[in-house]
Structures are given as structure tokens and as C-alpha cells.
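Re: the multi-chain job from yesterday

Posting the exact lines I submitted so nobody has to dig through the queue logs.
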Amino acid sequence: MQPVRLEIVKQLPGGARAGVLHTPHGDIQTPAFVPVATKADIKGIESAKFDWLGIQTYISNTYHLYLSGLDAVEKAGGLAKFMNWNGPTITDSGGFQVFSLGTGFGKKVSKFTSAEKNFPLQGDIPRPSAESFSPAFYDEELATSHGKLAIVDDEGVTFTSHLDGSLHRFTPERSVEIQHRLGADIFFAFDQCTAPTDSYEEQKEAMERTHAWAKRSLQAHRQNFEANKTQGIYGIGQGGQFDDLRKESARTIGEMGFDGFGLGGSFSRKYGGNSLQSALEMLKELPAGMPVHGLGVGEPEDILLGAAHGVDTFDCVTPTRNGRTGGLYTSEGKIQIPNAQYQYDYGPLDEGCACPVCKNHTRAYVHHLFRTHEMLGPILASMHNIFFLTNLCKQIREAILNDQFDQFKDGFLEKYRK
RNA sequence: GCGUCGGUGGUAGAGUGGUCAAUUACACUUGGCUGUAAACCAAGCGCCCUUGCGGCUACGUAGGUUCGAAUCCUACCCGGCGCA
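And the result, C-alpha cells for all chains:
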């Protein structure tokens, strides 16, 4: 019996579907929004409040927990127990950090043949073979800030810790091993993330490397008998904004035998255009019934778009990062609660919102908390935002079940976009 | 009363003859945030306009020295401290 399985309750002709994602630690009603708990916490919100906010599961990060806390998590009995959470958990592979700390961070990226370089690898870090050091990436800004390097080669990734500049190395096998130790119900294969602005050649290279890493990640997982019974592994597809690459990637990953599929890439506007639409082309190429997760998809419009195509789960930092920095989601679009206009606004954060924050507090109060730099401000804002997105998914699910998805979507967007 | 130190933009506080409409921080105004190097980042922040290495008014008040003053001199006003 596979540990992770999607039960499709209803699927519309257009692709949108409502289902139940079964995991060893419980079911997830889909579509579902998955808050990000990078370092074993949804920033500012303890697990006891998760139910209250409609949180069914969350996703933590391999890279961050590897750098600090891995042993403590493992000794506690895994991510969920460590956080005193009795539901399903997910971990991301760390592939995004390679992108975020490497080529995606800053714009000055130059290539060189790293086989010529003599890296000061320490301790028991396995040195990659010279022939595997094909064109790699060197980030000048990172090198400047740490005096070190961020490198991708075919075997894996050598990187410097953003915390202390120390040198580390991830391979697909290493990422899987760490994720086994974290023990989440669902985890992701190690991949190479790209930016929408990357060229066709760069996307193709990253996609092919991701495929090779996916195969190795899957193999590393299947070889672990215990982990196979208790954890499901999702493969990640890449391809940027190029439909042919996306389809090829989906077919390749789709037939490898993963328990689920992740839409990879970065959908942030700061890296260029929006490649989400291209990524959604992947769904048509996947095996029927395979659960699909949208990695880093978290703007309401994007969740609606993804759900319309059949994406089952979405994770994103948007509710917590926006919330922490003063941005609130409302049914009439995003607002900046610290702005002067809310100083004497004694209405709820969002009219009609059923979240615990809106029931108990006013815009004027949250505005005041931000102005005075009280930590409760970012916390309340994050809570409201998370509820907004989990509730959006809940409404999407109900709309699908009631054959009213299109009406709901159009109605929501019309109001949201003002 | 005498002596002494000081009065700079919303606040604190730099500057002590030209490169000063004035460093910096905070405050204020606004924008951004999509698998979290993020309780963050960015822009603006005297007035005017045909927005320009533009004009005008500004560093307690009033004069003065100087080609040129927030910066030097004089008087006055105000404040801290010390002595009477």
C-alpha cells in the first residue's frame, strides 16, 4: 500500500478536481493550501493554532533544517512530533535554495569550468569527480559576501551556508537521506530550479539535470524499505516557460513511478515573466490520478488558475511574508495595513471574513501594532492571510463539488481585482 | 548679575568659511514581496516650476566681515551647568 494516495472525489471536464490526499498521518481535503514552515515553524504561529486557521499540512525545508536543527528534529521523532503536530507534513528538497542562493540571487551569473578550480572542501564532504564538473555557476555577489562559491554540477551542488559561509554539498541521495531523517509524509526529489528569464538552453540543461536527479532521488528512496512505507516522494518537473520542455519534463517524471508530481520553477515576477501557465501544461501529460503540487504558487489568482487545471495542493510564503511585512489579503484585493488610511478604520481586516483575527480585531488595531512594531501585528496579519488562502481553497473545493467552480472563480476575481 | 557651554530640517544628532537644501538614524508617505539569506527591501521626504548639474527660502533673532557664512564677528533672545 503506497503511503500517499490521491482519491479524486470529483473532477470537472476542465480539469479542476476535488479530492482527498491520503497520507500516513491523515487526510488532506484538496485543493489545499500548504503554508511554509521553513525552519520547523510557520513563522509566528504555533501548531496549536493550525486547526483554527484551516491548516491541514505544512512544508518545511531540508536546506534550512540541515544547517540547523536536523538532529533535534530527528531525535524528537520527526518533523511533526517536534512541532507537536499530529497531521501530515511535507518537506522540500533544498533544490530551491540552490536557485535562491545561487543563480537566482542577484543577476551577475557567469560560467566557468569548475573542474579547474580547487575547492576547499572540508571534512567528510565527498569531493565530486572532475568530469562531473561541467559548466557550473558562479555567483559573484555570493562570492563577494562570503568569499566563497555556489556551484551546480551534474553530481550535485556545492554551496556555502548563508549563516556562516561554511562549505557544504548536496546530492540527490543526500537530500533524500536528510528528508528521511526529517520524516515528513511527503517529500520532494532534489531538483534544479530555474528562473522564467532563463534561456531555452539553460532551461533544457536544468530540466535534464533535474530528471537525472529525480531518478537518483527516487532510487535512493525506494532502496530504503522503512521510509518507503511511511513517506511518499514527489518528483519535480521543470522547463520554465517553454511548453515543449514542460511537456517533456512531465512525461519523463510522470513515468518514473513517483507518488506525486511537483510543478517546479519560480513563479515570482521578480525573476521575470509568469511561467505558471506553461507549467500547467504539464498536467495533461501526467498519469491519471497522480497528485499534483504547485511549488511556490500562492497568489489567489494563481491558486485559482492552478486549481482550474487540477493542481491539488499549493505551498507558498505569500501569506506569512506578506503578513509579516504589512500586506493583507482581502476579498477586494491586497492592502497595506500600515498605511495611514487605516489608522482609524475600525472595521474587520476583511469584511465578511470568518477568521479568528477578523472576528476579534480591527484594522485600526493591527495598523497600530505595525506602527509600534509590536510582534503581534505580523502574527495576526499572517494568521489572517493563511486563513484567507486555506479558506479560498476550501471554497474552491466546495464550488467544484457543487458544480459552481467557474461562477465562483469569476465572482471571486471580479471582486478581488476591484 | 558674572562665567561657561549650547541653540541645525518632525525628532535625535552630524557638519564648524565654498563640493550644504545640509551626513546618519528614527519618524513620516508610498511601493514591492509567489518551493523564505526576508519581523524585509526600495523610493520619496523645505517651497516652486517650463523637472534643470533650475529658481527661491532656510541652520534662534537682527546686523556685520567676506567674492562666498549653518560655519567668523557684534548685539539681543532662549536653554543647561557653575559661582554669587
